[in-house]
Design brief:
Layout lengths: L2 H20 L5 H8 L3 H4 L1 H24 L1 H20 L4 H29 L2 H15 L1 H17 L2 H21 L14 H12 L2 H31 L4 H54 L5 H27 L6 H24 L7 H17 L11
Helix pairs in contact: 1-6, 1-7, 1-8, 1-9, 4-5, 4-6, 4-14, 5-6, 5-9, 6-7, 6-14, 7-12, 7-13, 8-12, 11-12, 11-13, 11-14, 11-15, 12-13, 12-15
Length: about 400
Amino acid sequence: MTPTTLLWLVTGCLMLQPLSTDLYLATLPGMAADFGVTASAVQNTLSLFVIGFGTAQLVSGPLSDRFGRRPVMIGGVALYLASSIACAIAPSLFWLVAARFAQAIGCCTGVVVARAVIRDAFPPTEGGRMLAKASSLLAIAPILGPILGGYLQLAYGWRAAFVALALAGLVVWIAALTQMRESNTQPDSEALRPARLFRSYLEVSRSPAFWAFALPGTLSYASIFAFISGTPFILIRVLGVPPQQYGFWFAAGVIGYLCGAMLCRRLIPRVGLQRALRLGTWIALAGGLLFVALTFAGLAMPATVILAQFLVMGAHGINFPSAQAGSLAPFPEKAGAAAGLFGFISMLGAFVTGIWVAGSHDGTVLPLASIAAAVAILLFVSARLFPHAGRST
């Protein structure tokens, strides 16, 4: 594949994740009313997606090490397409949650394989730049997704969001089927043996160089997931934003991610992955502390929430490409396993954060602000726990 073809294919795969979590956010209050359940109940459609996404990565990565990137990606995106259709026709919340779990497995397969393909094709620094380019392009999804979701909810109801996700999955599946070429030139026939799999994950997990990037990457994703899971109810139910306007407010915050990803593309070649990551954690810390300070000052309003989200997502645009590339760099022969473990840990952090946010609703902005500040502090500290491990990147 040419670099341009690879860039667009990787972007399409990575884009399925934010679309799957962001496009239907404005529909959550309406979904709760339709099924006659509480806000925390419908948030299970988000939490179970995260669990499925995280756990499946432990298998998806090694599968691509064993059988090659192309067949695993094509199969995973096909599952995503089928389960998106199942979500759209779900007759009950239980059905919807189960279909979302299956959708997450297909989605994560595309994302993990895309990361592994980048590691196959590029050295760490160039791989980081390629992921930053993809991140700046995929920012279109969380910017436009909630806006589209809000209008689909207004015009057709919450099921229309999953029809849109099915169409997105169809486009990516056709692209993978027709354009993708195999990048794993040396498949590992032992990659799926339990003992070998255990040793691979053990080797990766014992590496300080892995944790130097994986831990901040996990907490960075947790920091934005607090806003992804918390803002639909905070903005719509607490602060009175109309559902059709929610997408515009959310998109204003996501523009920060686009700015951060564009900045990351310039930072990495100049200062390296580790310094770029440290700069991003400073920005995240500023966003989290500003949010809780303004809330305590009695300035809890939509603009306050979105300003904090802009800073935190801008930091994530720097942090996550750096963390992905840095965590895989020491493992050229185990890129699939390293990508899978990185993804599992990231999703575990997001799941815990989502449960934390869902259980903290009290009709005010303060719980979300406090969680955002706490995660930002942990993120800042985590990027400094292994000062020597990431120097080579």
